[in-house]
Amino acid sequence: MSRDLQSFQDASDAEGTVLFDRGLPDLVGYLTLCGLPVPAHFLKAVRSFRYNRTVFIAPPWPEIFRQDEERKQSVEEARQTFDAMVRAYTVFGYELIHLPLAPVPDRASFVLERIS
Q1: What is the C-alpha to C-alpha distance for residues 86 and 91, in angstroms, rounded to an integer?
Q2: How far is 96 from 57, CA to CA, in rounded Å?
Q3: Which of 4, 55, 65, 72 has the smallest number of Cβ neighbours within 10 A?
Q4: CA–CA dist 30, 63 (Å, integer)
Q5: Which has the closest alpha carbon to 30: 68, 84, 92?
């Protein structure tokens, strides 16, 4: 959480648009996924430090999903993680926009068109 809070602060001090790969609600999603309690101070932080209401999310597309040294989850574990993140962000009032299954440059264009 401390790293996410520091990233949030750094972005607040930055000029221009900042995109995050992960955010504070992910912590709630991961803890919930693992069946662990979510500490009250985590909930307070997620409610207090708000990102833009719009959150882009990509499901674990089976068509392109591959396990490797960085991605250790199975496709089923990735699906469960995705579902936990959808629940967490939705509970905290974020609007989720699903990225299209498309080449990376097209996905980047999709995001840039919506944030400009």
Answers
A1: 8
A2: 7
A3: 72
A4: 24
A5: 84
Mean pLDDT of 84-93: 97
Strands (E), the chain: 54-57, 95-98
The pLDDT tens digits for 7-62 are: 999 998 899 899 999 999 999 999 999 999 999 999 999 999 999 999 999 998 88
SS3 68: coil
Supply the pTM of this predicted model.
0.89
Who's near 5: CB < 8 A, 6+ residues apart?
24, 45, 49
Question: In a 3-state reduction of DSSP, which class is residue 103?
Answer: coil
Q: Which of 19, 23, 28, 18 is nearest to 3 (CA)?
A: 23
Domain boundaries, the chain: 2-115
**Cα–Cα distance between 55 and 31 in angstroms, integer?**
20
Q: What is the largest CA-CA distance in the chain?
A: 40
